[in-house]
Give the backbone structure.
Amino acid sequence: MVTASVDHIVAIVERFHRDMGRLAPDEATNLFTDYAYIQMMMKEPYVGREEIHEMFTIWFTSHTDIVTTPRTVTGQDNRVAVEWVDISDHEGKHYEVPCFGIFEFDGDKIAAWRLYYDYALERGQKAGLKLPIYETAPQA
């Protein structure tokens, strides 16, 4: 495994999240190795560039107004941990879901992305419940 500097891979993750709403599926997929996987909690993993491309195609065509600004980002060795709120519109509903992810790199390409999110909050918003209070509270 090739190792890139921690600052470099942190910058890749920050840019990926900052640009998420503007990326095309090809651009997003190109950030990953050929053998990469994305593992979202409670779902089968997307393995390899073809499946990852398919996932991004579905995501970018079914969600609009996507914003995934990182709140906390830290890196060590070949890993980057990031916390953000996934904001998007999907099927006529607005979602703001807290997320956390671990990215593992091989060089400057993502080899793995394990993604965790507040499933109960996502389902509550789908049912029409109000957005959480923390979204309106000032940031520390």
Summary: DSSP finds four helices and seven strands in the chain. The chain has a mean pLDDT of 85. Strands lie at 32-40, 46-47, 63-67, 70-76, 79-90, 93-106, 109-117. Residues 8 and 108 are 8 Å apart (CA to CA).
